[in-house]
Amino acid sequence: MIKIKRLCFDKNILTDLFESSKSFNSFNNSFIKFYKSKPPIIRLFLLRNIRFIYLNKKVVGYFWFEQIYEKTYSIKDFVVDRTADLSKSLEENTVKPGFFSKGLFIYECEDNTLSNITLNTLGFKKSGETLLMEKNIENKTIEEVPNNISFTFMVNNKDENLRCNLQNNIFEDDSRIPLTIDDIYYDQCQDYYLDNASVFIKSYDEYVGYGQIILNNDSYFIVNLGIVKEQRGKGFSTHLLNHLINVCYDRGIKSIYIRVDQQNEIAKMLYLNNGFKFVNTVSIWEQ
Questions:
Q1: Which residues pair with 208 in a beta bridge?
Q2: SS3 state of residue 218
Q3: For residue 31, what is the domain's CATH number?
Q4: Which tens digit of pLDDT belongs to each residue from 160-190?
Q5: Residue 56: Cβ-neighbour burial (10 angstroms; 0-12, 13-18, 19+)
Q6: pLDDT at 2
Q7: Which PROSITE patterns does this UniProt record tie to the protein (predicted)?
Q8: How many domains does the chain have?
Q9: Backbone phi, then psi, for 84, in 5-degree steps?
Q10: Are residues 114 and 14 in the same domain?
């Protein structure tokens, strides 16, 4: 029988599980690494958001989660012992762990057989996929940028409203909840956020796009890259992408990753034409 519990007292098992975080899923944010980097008072709060997976009274895994909205949680680190046969247990007892009924849990994981079996067994359903692409940065990108185009770094405590409005225009969708200023401030407080790595692109005096570089799991990513609807098809996205790559080069970053929706053919061609290569598929799971 599979159970979810708050406590685990077997230090040897925990050590093995914590050390296997990255091998289970390279997108995991290692709980133990984050835990050790914080002062004791913060560690107490972190422990409230970790749960241990028991199979027939033996600890076989854990997950660390964080609330991102009301009744919506992001699983930041998730590991199950590779030798634990959760699927066999499910055949014997079809009752899935009730812990997940408290809200919506979201987890992003490299697509592989082990994670698929594990997450399906725990009642997760795959809700989407993105492609992971990588570019090795060996040289600075040289291109002719028209005189009307310029770039500026976002200034914290000044440009939050501008960024919020741009992103809501760029990523407007009926199924997407618009960003608020609080969302922008929350982003700036996260460990992945880098100062002077968020860039606006302007055409004359008009802001037409935005993109940023973050550091996630010891790897650099370009995220939130886009051009406002009214200015698409004019080459701005290529100029902004190349500028962000040059920012990476100037900072000594050797490789950069980007994620793109499986169905977004325009974005895939943009990245392929600018030296990115496909690395893996990242699945989005919900429970």
A1: none
A2: coil
A3: 3.40.630
A4: 999 999 999 999 986 778 999 999 999 999 8
A5: exposed
A6: 81
A7: GNAT (PS51186)
A8: 2
A9: -80, 125
A10: yes
Claim to verify: residue 117 and residue 162 sit in the same structural domain: no
Edge-first strand order for the sheet with 50-55 is: 2-5, 50-55, 58-69, 72-80, 104-110, 277-286, 125-136, 255-261, 219-227, 206-216, 193-203, 149-153
Does position 279 have pLDDT exceeding 70, yes or no? yes
Range of the domain at 175: 134-282
Q: Which of 282, 285, 284 is nearest to 111 (CA)?
A: 282
Structure tokens belonging to residue 71: 């009744």
> Which residue is associated with the tokens 């935005």?
210
CA separation, residue 158 to residues 18, 161, 178, 247, 287 (Å) = 40, 8, 20, 21, 38
Q: Quick check: 274 and 238 in contact, CB under 8 A? A: yes
Q: Based on the domain organization, do 192 and 116 belong to the same domain? A: no
CA dihedral 272, 276, 279, 283 (to 10 degrees): -70
Residue with tokens 């741009």: 166
Question: What pTM does this model have?
Answer: 0.82
7 and 85 together in one domain: yes
Kindly state whether residues 165 and 101 are assigned to the same domain: no
Average pLDDT on 20-29 reads 90
pLDDT at residue 56 tops 90: no
CA separation for the pair 239, 244 (Å, rounded): 9
Final residue belonging to a domain, choices 95, 123, 151: 123
